[in-house]
Fold:
Amino acid sequence: MLAIRKLFYLLLRLPIKLFVHCKVVADEIINLGQLTTEQPVFYVLRHQSASDVLSLRTACKKAHLPDPLAPVNVDGQILSRLLFLEKPTALFYWRTSTKTTAIAQGFELLNAHANNEKLDAQLIPANVIWGRTPTKEKNNTNVGTLLADQESPNWLRKFFIVLFLGRHTLVRFSAAISFRHMADKHGSDEVSARKLMRIARFHFHRQIIAATGPRLMHRQQMFANLIVNPAIKRVISEEAKNKNITEAQAKKQALAIMDEIAGDYRDVTVRFGERILGWLWNRLYSGIEVNKAERLRNLAQEGHEIIYVPCHRSHMDYLLLTYVIFQQGLVTPRIAAGINLNFWPAGPIFRKAGAFFIRRSFKGNRLYSTIFREYLGLLFERGYPVKYYSEGGRSRTGRLLSPKTGMLAMTIQSMLRGIDRPLTLVPVYLGYEHVMEVGTYHKELSGSQKKGESIFGVIKAIRNLRNYGKGYVNFGEPINVNQFLNSQVPDWKQAIDPIDPQKPKWLNPSVNLLAQQVMTSINQCAALNGVALVSLILHATENKALSKVELISQLDFFMAMQRFAPYHVELTIPDDSGSALLEHVILLNKVTVNQDSFGEIISLTDSAILELRYYRNNILHTFILPSLVCRLLERNAKISQDSLLCQVQRLIALLKTDLFLWQSADDVAQQVKAVCQFLAQEGIAKQSKTGVWLLSSGDGNRAKIRLIAECVNETMQRVAIITSLLSQLAPVKKLELNEKVVAIAQRLSVLNNINAPEFIDKKAQATLITAMKNQGYILLDDDDKLVDSSTLGLLKISASNLVDIEVLQSIVR
Structure:
């Protein structure tokens, strides 16, 4: 019997090779090669199918796992490496047996563990998913749906599945289950074997939902559901009354809005898009680095409603994140896209890829806001993952923008409908070594009018395709919205109204806090890269130039600082040396290389200074604390541990909102200690017996930290401007103070050659003023004017001490 089966597998190898292409997704422990093969390894599959087994065999070869067709020797007994949960459905109804030997095999293995304490066989769940086509709400003649929508297809149906869907096969390896653990914890009887198979069956079911998505609802079905929604019916009635039109006319307006908003997801578009994007990334980038994707798969399999909340750098974000999610074996999300992207032909394509469109502002349009809110709520109720950008638009400076809270507010309001599943936000850091719109950003920041998106812009971008270096997608620590509300508003569930969720008083403050937490989490999982690090270092120099030798030394120093005293454990740091990173940046033509008799000099042209400042701002926040420590050591001959810590804590607390920093006072204390330890280990600084810190003797030590200390310079200048002006002008209206601050910042940018849009940005200055007010440095008098408090003097002294004397004199004058 075994020989016949092997012959059958041998005959099928060629057609499987021709018609099946496997995408392999494995849990981290398997990807990292941490699975021990010293103990026996077994596989459990959903179906007893030759095509599944041969596809698994191909996937195992790619993942460097044992051959599933090779037998296993367990205590002298030769066993099959494969366990099947179900047999295929019989072609003829009178042959209905679907029982397999999986339970008997499981019982046999558990029993073997009871007899041999050293045995620890591993069972790897291997899910072969054909086509990744979601099932539909109603009967559909789509071939993929007809073929894939069956748990245990018979051999004839499986033939057509392989023929039509084989090129889109996903093999999903999960973390291995230990038979030793099962035997020790649950026993080695048949009941435990049944429990093990039941767990595997449920696990596979969750994986299929995660990979294909929930049952697909047609666009017109969505409209039908929404039009009878109580909240929308009520607002249609009010619209008709207020505008003196018939309800039929108001309903027609509502349907037009739905048609403008709603996506039209087609899995065939996603599959085709994957091929196009696979080609595009190979043409554009030298690699896409993805970190912590395991979190997504865990959330999906645990039944969470996933809401991706990435930062927004480029129009590429829409494509890159969707592509990465699909590559990780998960269904692509429904994407909230700006209405400006709804132009032909991109709009219809994006819509079929899952995009739904949102106006930049719908304040005062109650019909639109209600429909959009209920549409979003319907997506959540149906279990579709969603992606939106809380910044609202693309960052033109490279820094995170202040979050727009509308989408987050509607997300929480959706929970007030009584959704059973937990809603979980996944912050995503997107980073690039080249953003193709960066030139346009500088024109817009310089006063040029923003151009609308069009097909001509797309064609122009395609013509200019070249190697843009690497892209980075880091998935941050998930934020469970249910748990967040439980901690912030313990009685929030009392506001649940399934018919028409209201806007309770606690909503706005809770949303503001959640928005801040999301942006902070995005910054926590930033990705350091060669272009950003070179940009940060060269911008810290006076002439935006360094010798190649010194630049490499500084790159190594900056990375060593982060490895020893990291901004956050989520931060990703390159494994390459400073020399390798610089060579990569040179190949990307980001810097100018000149040769003289002493060696090579790396510098930035005027246009490169503007461009690379964008990438500097991507990672500036990660070096703010080390920069403050080095600046204080540089500016003080001696400084006590307490004074050093107190000043850093004061300034970090002030900058938290502006730069979306995460550290509490305790976290700051720990990182300050780690930075000082690193500097002491490098021989740059030392601590006296009395606890005083000072730089070690020698000009080399001061030069070593000069550039890292300079990174915080412009930020401190902005603080110094506000504190100095307020002490001179108080009492003063907030608007007047903000205008004066911007005026002085503009003057300083000319006098000190600071070509930095964020330095003179009104919103950035207003954020700092608000932070000072919230922390009690600035008070309001009876006329609602700003006045300085008794503590502002301490902040002014701290900031002034860290600013160059020439700049400080310019501010005072």
About this structure: The chain has four domains: 2-212, 220-524, 530-710, 713-812. The first helix runs from residue 2 to 19.
